[in-house]
Amino acid sequence: QTVVTQEPSLTVSPGGTVTLTCASSTGAVTSGYNPNWIQQKPGQAPRTLIYKTGNKHSWTPARFSGSLLGGKATLTLSGVESEDEAEYYCLLIYGGAWVFGGGTKLTVL
Amino acid sequence: QVQLVQSGSEVKKPGASVKVSCKASGYTFSSSGISWVRQAPGQGLEWMGWISAYNGNTNYAHHLQGRVTVTTDTSTSTAYMELKSLRSDDTAVYYCARDYDYIWGSWGQGTLVIVSS
Fold it and tell me: Which of B13, B26, B99, B102 qualifies as a cystine partner to A34, CB 3.0-4.6 A?
């Protein structure tokens, strides 16, 4: 069973920078896993922020960026705002089947 | 703009089936795909399956194969997810999302399905 692992929780100060990571139990995450990053705020539907590693949708704030580093997919928030407090999920594809990470609860404090 | 509008909440008894709809607008439905995702109360997101609205190809999560079926009606730009043999642990909010060429885009608003005797 494939497992995608994220930090369960992270805390960042307003205006700060934080990096969330996404690891695969099968080995290094590469662009072939087509990482997507999903944001979900309490009581709301999820929203896709990043697709195919580092591409942004038109609605994605500029302070969000995605990349690959050290065998993991990463989501970096620079200049964090209070509205960024949310759960963040990464999503990887394995031969046609998508697998979500367990999510990272980001607290802005 | 792209919109995915899902059907309303459902309450079902164990052993029954549920069919959730997802009506798309704002893009060419038949050239894209739809993934279905669910979220049990207080839990994370779980991918269930995907369908190409272009050719009807499907992929399903291994542990749900045989119980879940995703279909599309291109004449109405609507995708459907049917889950059979419902159990109490199928209680969740079910979401559709536009998923094409490994790009996840817009999401539906979610449909609450409660399975209870």
Answer: B102
